[in-house]
Amino acid sequence: MIFGGLLYLGLFALAASMGRHAQLLPAHWGLAKRAARLRLAAWLLILASLVIALWSPDWALRLLSWIGLVAVAGGIVLLSLTYGVRWARSAALLAIALVVAGLVGP
Amino acid sequence: MSAVREGARQVMAWLHGWTGLLLGHVLFLMCLAGTLSLFKPEIGRWMRPEAVATAAPVDAVAAATGWLAKNAKDSTGWYLTAPDGRANTVEAAYDSGGEFLYRALDPVTGAPVARETMGGEFFYRLHFELQLPFPWGRLLASLAALVMLVALITGIIAHRRIFRDFFTFRPAKGQRSWLDGHNALGVLSLPFHLMITFTGLVTLASLSMPWPITANYGDELMAMYQELTPGLANRSPAGTRAPLAPVAPMLREAERRFGGAPIGRVYVVNPGDAAAVVTVFRSDAAQIGFTPAEISFDGVTGKVLAEWTENRPAVKTYNVVYGLHMARFAPGVLRWLYFLGGAMLTLAIATGLVLWVVKRRERAPLSLGNRLLERLNAGAIGGVLLGSVAYLWANRLLPLELPGRAEVEVSIALWSATVSLVAGAALRPAIAWPALLGALALGCAGAGLLGFATSGVGQWGMSLMLVATATALSLIVRRQIRALRAPPAPRRGRARAAA
């Protein structure tokens, strides 16, 4: 749950850091100046999701799941960018909720 | 330096295109069949709606051996797969009267289930045997896997902006859209594509690269298999008849020695002979590695002949690579992620084949070869899909008592694919695509409705998937028909000249 959420947030941030997909985040956030930092944060989130996925006795199954989830999360960002940015933003909120639920849950 | 790099990239792009093109249609068939094979037990259950009984693996295999002892006495071996949470029948492969048969046996009575069908086994075998005689199908599949690996690696090198294009898809822009789609499908699931291609190549390595085996074992292939699975006792028939001891106690003993893990495959070699051997393999479902342990019993006395738990690092590594490809270990969500990865690879191949033609058409009028390829694309891609759906229709509509029913189902699938291929080649591509995809949408909807009508609620999952696929396809076909009715757009060159 946590690694899936972090992975989505990482891919969302990676897309938002690209000039072509800057519409993912509101314009008044001044993304243009922070693109490099956003990109770094994106890669750190992706790396963190991978580390968390591997930090388990089931690491082999979770690594395979992580690989599969890259396609799912990336696919959601791609389709949202093409057909409606609000879906990607809603999914980002859901991903945050997933991470929080994973952290506070049993 | 950059000129050299650019030149290398162009060479890689050229190689990517040609390797993908030469065996693209075979790869499409392999990937589609492999992706469907992930749900082999579920497809089998859908195709045998009458087989609703369930039993514990030990009881089911014991019932199966009981039926085979009466009805396949002269067989040289029975190769059984025990049911698990996904499949409820015993999958049996055995020879009888000079013929090699695959049958699903009822877990309670042990007799073949009423609806004789290959079920999901058809897609599984099609994936690496391509309905060709041994060894040609496997050799072609192995070559195609090698070509796929080359296409993947050259594709990565040729792709200049792999991360920048990661999230880019620009619809309704002709060649640009096909390229974006092909890139997105390929890149989003790239680690999976590399893994599944490499592991697939390894599963057939003994056939495509036999030289290390020949160097070490010469013609003694049995010696190699014996060393690979030391728990599989190998005995020649004694020539004197002797009844098979009850199998259930052997299976229970095997389960006990496997530490309580369920049984998977069960081989009974030389049944009814004094040298009968019963070999029990631990189920592959609980770990990635294939064939984790096996134990052989004397078929007449029930005494243990050989026992082995795999701990050799090299063999374990091979088994993990093999198991990664088979995905028998994959629990529900992971299996769907495998399915998604396989579907994306299948679509990446299809879009690559279409892109080859679209790219050339936008530059100049198509050559004869490319015009043929354009028609072959429609026929082959549509044909493979329509053949698969025709197989499901045949399963529901053929009479149960038809002799050789399973083979007739397969013939109908192959003939449907052939007819679609011919139709695709004969029709204009602009007509062939909506016609074939429309037929496919109707076929999926019909198969789904037949499924609802003839099976219990427990098997409606696949019928729902078929109806959902039909809905998605009908949206694509509607769009294609609209494009067909719209006035033709001016050629880019002409439009530019007019401007």
Automatic annotation (TrEMBL), chain A:
Key words, A-Z: Membrane, Transmembrane, Transmembrane helix
Membrane spanning stretches: 38-56, 63-81
Name this polypeptide is given: DUF3325 domain-containing protein
Organism: Sphingomonas naasensis
From TrEMBL, chain B:
Residue spans crossing the bilayer: 20-39, 139-163, 184-207, 336-358, 378-398, 410-427, 434-454, 460-477
PANTHER family listed in its UniProt record: IRON-REGULATED INNER MEMBRANE PROTEIN-RELATED, PEPSY DOMAIN-CONTAINING PROTEIN
Name of the protein in question: PepSY domain-containing protein
Organism: Sphingomonas naasensis
Domain of life: Bacteria
UniProt keyword annotations, A-Z: Membrane, Transmembrane, Transmembrane helix
InterPro entries: PepSY-ass_TM
